[in-house]
TrEMBL record:
Keywords: DNA-binding, RNA-binding, Stress response. Gene3D superfamilies: RNA-binding S4 domain (3.10.290.10). Residues 97-135 are annotated as: Disordered. Residues 11-74 form the RNA-binding S4 domain. It comes from Marinobacter mobilis. Belongs to the HSP15 family. GO terms for biological process: cellular response to heat. SUPFAM superfamilies: Alpha-L RNA-binding motif. This is Heat shock protein 15. GO terms for molecular function: DNA binding; ribosomal large subunit binding; single-stranded RNA binding. It holds the Pfam family S4. Residues 124-135 have a biased composition (Basic and acidic residues).
Amino acid sequence: MTASTPEELRVRLDKWLWAARFYKTRSLAKEAIEGGKVHYNNQRCKPGRLVEPGARLTLRLGWQERIVIVDQLSDRRRGAPEAQMLYHETEESIKKAEDTAWQRKTMQAAQLPPARRPSKKDRRNIQRFREQNGL
């Protein structure tokens, strides 16, 4: 879908998310939209929804929730630097992502790895413990 002027360009939400490199394929973008992981102006929507500049998208990607504002439309997937020009992320979203990353990092640091691998006897004890406790 190519238009002669940017005003005539009409882009579906799943295609825009793919072009902006939030999802690797359009089908993954479609599944995320249908699964409620993408909200358009704080409302659930369908993959065929037409995107408009200035729209607010809330995306749940793994551990992160990103809030982006659509700046430009594109129906073609290009390089990452060009794709980043299609949107800008809100300040609250960036701060929230940094806080979440810090929390995950500190949680991971609190979990110490075992000093050595479990011996055969240790593995049997672990197995017995799991069976007794229904784990």
